[in-house]
Write a structure and sequence with these properties.
By secondary structure, this protein is of the alpha/beta class. 40% of the residues lie in helices and 13% in strands. Strands 1, 2, 3, 4, 9 and 10 form a 6-stranded mixed beta sheet that branches. Strands 6-7-5-8 form a 4-stranded mixed beta sheet. The two termini are 35 Å apart.
């Protein structure tokens, strides 16, 4: 699984292979229990994770002025991450102390030996991971820490007034698409969480020979996607476009996930009355966000980061990950009920959440995503053979 994580995902990164990486927890000397003096902490988010965790970080800073005097936040895209970190490391001036990333940035950075191995013995909260989060942690090995987690999807989303009898199986979804050209929509998988989750979830729905091998084990999936493509008029380049199209009626059924179901309805992008469903043979394809420390970060700063991560993996802080359903549920560790979340999260989820999710999560298998090399192969084939020519620019 660690080897899977080091394989290339982000565009433009180098050749695949197991990284040498640091042989000790840090390449800048022993990491003390605390920094010698308060530091400035520079955080880069390439996953939209700050929506879930900035409150956790700010709380730590407010309570630990002896460790962190201030924190700066910046954002970038995952494909930009490798170049940004490598440039700083090549100049021997690493200004980014903590990166919040998804599987894509994590894997690309491990492939390029950009991350410092984390001393997990200092992070006792990792022993309390939910089973799905623990599996996602295996993808990171020693080079990242799972800080938020959700089962994701794939789900289908629709407005009952437009689709009173939604499909219950992949075959019924295909039949609906054939009878209603242009009505079924999902975003380009390499640009969209729900699109990617739909792609990885189909092999389970269709009973393919090896759901983890898109090259040799997805014969049914590729045939299905090719047939469905006949009735799809365009593939939006982002998930948010599919949500807007569902709201304006130009799409009737779209691919979704728990977070993409709840949060756009909280924000008013999608009507509150939208519904979701699963298809026969449904398996969850899970997702997570990680914290990684670039190589070259001074030991004093690493000390503050490790103490921050320990703080973030406490139940009180994890409860903030419920947010307004963006990564629902969000917490990566056990025993963090919604009742612990901030009042605005509780109110949003009381109004826009779905009670049925608890049973769906409990009663259906959880599958980790494809390893990075396999996912790149799946994206490439989808672009070449399925929908690349119909992607909305």
């Amino acid at each position: 699984m660690v080897l899977a994580a080091v394989l290339l995902l982000a565009a433009g990164a180098g050749a695949c292979g197991a990284p040498e990486g640091p042989k000790t927890p840090t390449d800048t000397g022993p990491v003390p229990a605390k920094p010698g003096k308060a530091i400035t902490l520079n955080v880069l988010d390439v996953a939209g994770n700050l929506q879930l965790t900035q409150g956790m970080i700010d709380d730590f800073v407010a309570k630990n002025k002896d460790q962190v005097e201030r924190v700066t936040y910046s954002k970038a895209t995952a494909p930009e991450l490798v170049g940004k970190i490598k440039a700083q490391q090549n100049a021997n001036r690493v200004d980014i102390d903590l990166v919040l990333t998804g599987v894509d940035g994590l894997a690309a950075g491990v492939d390029q030996s950009l991350w410092t191995a984390v001393d997990k013995s200092r992070l006792t909260g990792m022993s309390d991971y939910l089973p799905g989060a623990a599996e996602m942690q295996k993808l990171a090995g020693d080079f990242g820490v799972t800080i938020t987690y959700y089962p994701s999807g794939p789900l289908i989303e629709y407005l009952p007034v437009k689709v009173p009898s939604p499909p219950k199986s992949a075959e019924e979804l295909l039949a609906y698409a054939k009878a209603n050209p242009g009505a079924v929509q999902y975003a380009r998988p390499s640009n969209s969480g729900p699109g990617r989750t739909f792609l990885m979830g189909l092999p389970y729905l269709l009973g393919d020979s090896d759901p983890k091998d898109p090259v040799n084990g997805w014969a049914k999936t590729w045939a299905y996607l090719a047939e469905l493509n006949k009735y799809v008029t365009l593939y939006p380049s982002s998930t948010s476009e599919t949500m807007k199209n569902l709201a304006n009626g130009s799409a009737k059924i779209i691919a979704s996930t728990t977070g993409w179901d709840i949060n756009p309805r909280v924000l008013g992008t999608v009507p509150k009355e939208a519904q979701v469903g699963t298809l026969q043979g449904f398996h969850w394809v899970t997702d997570a966000h990680y914290a990684v420390i670039p190589r070259g970060v001074p030991a004093d700063k690493q000390a503050a980061v490790l103490n921050l991560l320990a703080h973030m993996l406490t139940p009180e802080q994890q409860a903030k990950a419920y947010d307004k359903g963006y990564f629902y549920p969000g917490p990566a560790i056990k025993d963090v009920p919604l009742s612990m979340a901030p009042s605005d999260s509780q109110q949003a989820l009381a109004e826009f959440g779905r009670p049925e999710y608890e049973k769906l999560i409990a009663d259906n298998p959880l599958e980790v995503p494809l390893d990075a090399k396999s996912l790149v192969a799946a994206f490439d084939r989808w672009d070449r053979e399925i929908g690349g020519a119909k992607v909305k620019k």
